[in-house]
UniProtKB/TrEMBL annotation:
InterPro entries in UniProt: WD40_repeat_dom_sf
Segments for region (Disordered): 1-23
Protein name, per record: Uncharacterized protein
Biased composition (Basic residues): 1-16
Species, as recorded: Pichia membranifaciens
Length: 571
């Protein structure tokens, strides 16, 4: 349950009688004023966050004004445990949360490959000229990383990694080995055919990231016969194993068992990353009808997943038995993305999926609980989006928030919608108009005792190369307040106007009220399912963030120019 936040009484303006030109605002001033007088909620985390991401007078003054004078809750409130999810997992509610069968599953058998198979399949050789802020530029070669520069006045901890090609999607693995985390990324050639049913190969790259030292290295690279369009880990994991689900451009889904032995590699003489091909051990799920191809999928329990197809059918597979549980025509066109809420209350007798379709509309669809197949599919509500407002392929930008029992998705170009599961007619909209169009969004997640839970940070990636952080608790509870809530620009990626392959990363933080700047609209290119397309009709497209992910206090982003940017937010 969410903690109730009481709006405090408005206090007097700090230092109102002093000469404002001589004021130097210190962190102690903010801490004392905010903690001792306003009493909204403990925001020491928010204070430390801003200190660690731009500790200079301008940022402090901006933060002081917005957070203190305007009485807004902070960017990073204390993480609140999701008690409903905890109880559902503890009691294995509806028999949806058990991980017992993980032990009997086989992990994928990987065959160590030589460089010839890699060279014959990929051309990931995209060198980039790169620089931080106004520092000297350097050549960033494929599979190499640059650490953020050290600055005593603006402590930032992160790195930029060149994939050498085009990263399509990514996901953090729930398993943690000491301070090591593992990020799975799907990468293709820059000139690869990007379509729903492409026959191009993809490279599943596993990065090993240390949250303590900031060190990064490639754990392994696995050659896949098709594009991995979606990467999803089970929302509940065992202590030493989890499930990885890959939605492929072959129209099928693969499920892998991932444990700590998966990350082990043989001793290799050279320093190149270990390259593998998949030999066996993976479970492949395909509809027994060659006219129906899976386009998207989502876990509905620890041993089932729901999927959408190119002809508007929705179905479910059981992972343990590899059985097709049901296949129902939903009465809608091709399904491009599906996201599912899992029931965490004993009274729940169905689960709800958020569906994006090829008619550029969104749907909430009621589905049977995985172990209760008797109830019929029931479309609850349709939300129309004009046909020129959205692209089809890989536009997978809906977020499920279990702690708010809602879905968020982008309504092009700058609007985000919140759809309540309790009342589908209750749709809240807010705009983030500080930068260009929103291209992707994500929410902060935590892995605690093997289960995924939501934080309170909303990330938005914009087509002008910026990434913003907002507290969606503020966004959804400040609609009647006099002052608009604020958003923090975490970074800005820029491209040289004279050199096509030169980029620089602006690490200067910037705090704005939401909606301060006018949105810059662009004409979006419409395309149909299965057709080759550009990533997005932005100029330049290389500055477009393609996907965001935030695990605890680590923000990861992949870009159209082939870069992966990871930042550890010091708290």
């Amino acid at each position: 349950m969410l903690a109730k936040i009481t709006k405090p009484k408005r206090g007097r303006k700090p230092n109102a009688k002093k000469n404002q030109g001589e004021d130097i605002i210190t962190t102690q001033d903010i801490d004392s004023e905010y903690e001792n007088k306003n009493k909204v909620q403990s925001n020491t985390n928010a204070l430390k966050f801003v200190q660690s991401n731009g500790l200079d007078q301008a940022v402090l003054e901006s933060y002081y004004k917005i957070q203190t004078e305007d009485l807004e809750a902070g960017f990073l409130p204390t993480h609140i445990d999701d008690l409903s999810l905890h109880n559902a997992v503890e009691n294995n509610l509806h028999d949806l949360f058990s991980t017992d069968f993980y032990d009997v599953m086989k992990r994928p058998k990987l065959q160590l490959s030589d460089s010839r198979a890699y060279d014959n399949s990929f051309k990931l050789d995209n060198d980039l000229e790169f620089q931080f802020n106004d520092s000297k530029s350097t050549i960033l070669e494929p599979c190499h990383a640059l650490n953020y520069p050290f600055d005593e006045l603006n402590l930032r901890n992160g790195f930029v990694f060149n994939t050498g090609g085009l990263p399509l999607t990514m996901a953090w693995c729930p398993l943690k080995y000491g301070n090591l985390r593992y990020l799975f990324i799907s990468i293709v050639d820059k000139n690869a055919t990007i379509s729903e049913f492409s026959d191009n190969k993809s490279l599943l790259t596993v990065l090993e990231v240390s949250s303590e030292t900031g060190h990064l290295q490639i754990n392994k690279q696995i050659i896949l016969d098709y594009l991995a369009k979606e990467i999803e880990f089970s929302f509940v994991s065992a202590s030493t194993s989890t499930l990885l689900k890959l939605t492929l451009s072959s129209g099928s889904v693969e499920v892998w068992k991932i444990d700590f032995e998966f990350f082990a590699n043989p001793e290799i003489i050279n320093t190149k990353p270990a390259i593998y091909t998949l030999e066996s051990g993976n479970l492949t799920f395909t509809i027994p009808n060659n006219q129906l191809l899976i386009t998207t999928s989502a876990f509905t329990s620890t041993k089932t997943f729901v999927f959408g197809t190119n002809h508007g059918y929705i179905g479910q597979f059981s992972i343990d038995s590899q059985k097709l549980d049901y296949l129902i025509f939903a009465g809608i066109p091709a399904i491009t993305h599906i996201k599912t809420a899992f029931p965490t209350q004993p009274r729940d007798d169905f689960l709800t999926s958020f569906v994006e379709a090829a008619d550029f509309s969104n749907y909430l669809i009621r589905l049977p609980i995985p172990n209760k197949k008797s109830c019929l599919i029931n479309v609850l509500k349709t939300y129309d989006i004009p046909t020129n407002n959205k692209e089809l392929q890989f536009d997978k930008n809906s977020v499920h928030l279990n702690n708010l029992n809602s879905f968020l998705n982008i309504e092009w170009p700058i609007t985000i919608k919140k759809i309540s599961l309790d009342n589908p007619n209750n749709v809240t909209k807010f705009k983030i108009a500080n930068d260009d169009d929103i291209n992707c969004l994500a929410n902060q997640i935590y892995y605690e005792d093997g289960k995924v839970s939501d934080g309170f940070i909303l990330l938005t990636g914009h087509t002008n190369g910026s990434i913003r952080l907002s507290n969606y608790l503020n966004l959804l509870t400040n609609t009647e307040k006099r002052v608009q809530v604020s958003t923090l620009k975490l970074l800005q990626l820029n491209k040289s106007v004279t050199t096509d392959t030169k980029y620089w990363l602006d690490l200067c933080s910037q705090i704005d009220k939401i909606g301060e700047m006018a949105a810059v609209k662009s004409n979006s290119k419409q395309s149909s399912i299965g057709r080759t397309k550009e990533l997005r009709n932005v100029n330049p497209k290389e500055l477009c963030p393609l996907k965001l992910s935030m695990l605890e206090n680590t923000v990861a982003s992949i870009w159209g120019n082939g870069l992966l940017i990871i930042e550890h937010l010091t708290l």
